[in-house]
Structures are given as C-alpha cells and as structure tokens.
Amino acid sequence: MNILFASDTDRPDEWIPELQARLPEASFRIWPDTGPPEAIDYAVVWKPEPGLLAGLPNLKGILSLGAGVDPMMADDTLPDHVPLVRMVDEGLTEGMTEYVCWQVLAIHRQAAAYRAFQAEARWRQLDQKLARERTVGIMGLGVLGTDAARALAGLRFDMRGWSRREKAIDGVATFHGEAGLDAFLDGLEILVCLLPLTPDTRGILNARLFDRLPRGAWLINAGRGGHLVEADLLAALDDGRLAGATLDVFQPEPLPRDHAFWRHPAITVTPHVASITHARTAAAGLAEEIRRLERGEPPIHPVDRARGY
Ligand code: NAP
Ligand code: GLV
User: What is the mean pLDDT of the chain?
Assistant: First the structure.
C-alpha cells in the first residue's frame, strides 16, 4: 500500500511514524516526491495543489488532515469517483472548544478593557454580567460546534446553535435553516461561526446578518475567512453595530502585513490556530479510515460532495 502525504503545514516527521506504526505494510511518499503516480493508493492531504489528486490515477481514498475540506473541494479537477474522508479527531475538537471558550470568556469578562486599564495603572471596576445573562450563539452545530456549545452551556451561558438540519442538544436552544436564522440571531450578544465553507455559507457574515444582531454584539470567526465580508465587518465596527470581532481565519492566509485587521482596535487576530490536527491524537483514526477503505467499507467520516462538507 502506497500513501502520499501532501501538506505544506503538517509535518511528515510527526505523521509518518504515527501512521507507519498503525499501517506497518504501508510505504510513504512525501509530496512533491510522489514517485510513479499510478502507484499511489491513498492521499493524505491538506490544501493539495490543484491538479495533484487528478494526476494519481489509482487512488482509493483521499483523506483530509483538516476538518474543513473547502481547499480540496475548490479543486475543479478533484477525481469524482474517489471517496473523500474528512478529519474528525478528539484533539482537534478539544482544541476548538478551548479556543471558543477562551475567546467568549475574554469578551464576556471584558479582558481588553482591563488590559487597557492596566496599561494606564488605572484601578477601575466595570459592571459584570453573569454568563447566564449573556446569550451566545454558534453557527454550525457539527462536531466542533456541538462540543463548544456544550462546554459554554456548562459555563452557564445562555446558549443557542444554528445548523442546516434540525438538532437537539441539551442546554442549547437550537435553530435550523434559513427559516430559523432570524430567531437564532435575535438578541445574540456573541456570535461564533464554526460553519464549513460551502457555496451556501460563503459571505454569510455580512451586513445583512450583522443588522439582525443587537447593537454592540461581538463576532468570533473560527470557520473560514471566506465566510466574512470584510468591508461589511469594518463598516459595522466603525458605526458601532458590532462592538468587536475575534478572527482566526482569513482570506488569504497569512493575513497580509498591511491588512487593516491587524491594527484595528476592535479586532483580535489569531493566526489560524484555533485548533490544529496533531498526529498524536489523529493518526489512529486516519489509519482506521484507510483500513476500512482497504476492506471495501465506507469511511466513518465521509465528505458529502453534494453538500460540500
Ligand atoms: P461539521 O461536523 O461538518 O459541521 C458543520 C456544521 O455546519 C453542521 O452542523 C452543519 O449542519 C452546519 N452547516 C453547514 N452548512 C450549513 C448551512 N448552509 N446552514 C446552516 N448550517 C450549516 O464540521 P466541523 O468538523 O464541526 O468543522 C466546522 C468548520 O470549522 C470546518 O469546516 C472548518 O472550516 C472550521 N475549522 C476551523 C479550524 C481553525 O483552526 N480555525 C479548525 C478546524 C475546523 P448539519 O448539522 O445540519 O449538517
Ligand atoms: C483547520 O482549519 C481545519 O479545517 O481543520
């Protein structure tokens, strides 16, 4: 069995030993050294170069190193007969939940204001709501959104969630579809985006949506940069419709050094670190998906090409 590892961010020296230990019969190639393209059985990828996968004629599976498969779905030449597998991993989920809780708590507990007071050696106490008095909503109740929503509900935030199909999660008021969006947004003080980037969700964080939030709401985007209409965010911050935004994902990445977001006083930038797939937690699941494909079984976490995620 020949596996091509193709990522310019994930380290082959971390992944290959973890995969090799679980798939001792496998031989690995590290992109761009693909060897004979017809010999490759599986491609383990993150942001593969357009055309790379189409050039591997005997692929039996394409496995994403990330939860979001938008980079591979953007490749017009993606082979349409090969199963696509997305990344679901406890470590990735835990990392995202930590990030979302960190950022929600920073907003809720007014971290930026206290940092500014400290910079001026100023002793000032602000009014503080309890979490139960703060309404937080997560767009995207998938693997990541559900776990983050549960954790925030555990901290007693007044939690809401929005998905494409109907969902039930203990401690979370759930809404779905376009018809449920207004009710989901109504009165939300902190909006968290954990959607996948698809044709339906591209540009969803736009002026029309910001207008449906209460004045002074906050945005956290850890989904994808393509969800956000940047000019609409800047306008909403400038006129006070939004109080602030925390952005982890951008278009393009890295965020150019001269981009307005870096220096905007109401924007917190993190460099796509909300959660990262680590071999030490994710390799076992990835190896299991390859074994299933080898046995002719469907993957546990297939990508639905029609839905785009
Ligand atoms: P997932 O399990 O596939 O869940 C996606 C959720 O979004 C589902 O609840 C789905 O609804 C909902 N959704 C999709 N399209 C929708 C639409 N048009 N309207 C309403 N809801 C819609 O994905 P995941 O594993 O949670 O990952 C979510 C995203 O997080 C990834 O795609 C990626 O972009 C991002 N991510 C970012 C980082 C980072 O470090 N910043 C790390 C990992 C992932 P249904 O439940 O009805 O299907
Ligand atoms: C990271 O952004 C991922 O999709 O896993």
Answer: 98
